Amino acid sequence: MTSAPTPSARPREQRPRRYLMCRPSHFEVVYAINPWMDPGKPVDAGLAVLQWERLRDLYRELGHTVELIEPVPGLPDMVYAANGATVVDGRVLGARFRNAERLAEGPAYLDWFRENGFTTLHDPEYVNEGEGDFLVTAGHVLAGHGFRSDERGHREAEAFFGRPVISLELVDPRYYHLDTALAVLDGDEIMYHPEAFAPGSRALLETLFPDALLVSAQDAAVFGLNAVSDGLNVVLPEAAEGLAGQLRERGFHPIGMDLSELLKGGGSVKCCTLEIRPRP
Ligand code: ARG
Q: What is the strand order of the sheet 213-214 is part of?
């Protein structure tokens, strides 16, 4: 009898993706809505743009399509495109932000989708911060709550996408969005930092994803989980060195990036990247 292959033995295959990004032309840290943000700390705006351009160029070199949304003056956090919407099967669930500072981003992103030929859109009733709190596996939509998205928004997403939405409770303010504590690697393979979740949610993750890659406090604290995988290449903050080693052992190709300036707003690789998933 042969047993199922261990995650490390699985062959890895890249699938080309379509991403939406927003140049940090108006990026600055002038308010604090998460523990990473300190308006008193200087941000190098030019370097922020350069680091973001490197990420955009990397995606294109890897063969992905990168679409761009025009940055709006006065919306410094708009660079974190992941929060702008959630797109599954070509269906666009708009975002509704918790904080007044970001409210106008929701309609701005929804307009982009309208203007770019998307016809199945939903303007949400409850707070949801897009892919900051919704992560899509092959079988589920994983959904964070506790700091930003409203749990009622999870049910709203479930009805709109017609996919099971698993609610997960976040408990550490440093990991205020699900995409700072968990990332989808491929299909139903995920990685996460267990301590970021309430006990019940940890138990749920253990049951649903027994093969998950567990990420250390050290790698989580440098935003290592704010990563983007195409099934082979995993783009992540370069400081997450231990995690890069774990990914290599599983047959992935980790690519470390320096997004120091965008980290000052509480975001990194994944936060800057919204995945547009096409119709099946
Ligand atoms: N300053 C932003 C906020 O606190 C950062 C958002 C990061 N985005 C993410 N997908 N986690 O809302």
A: 182-186, 189-192, 213-214
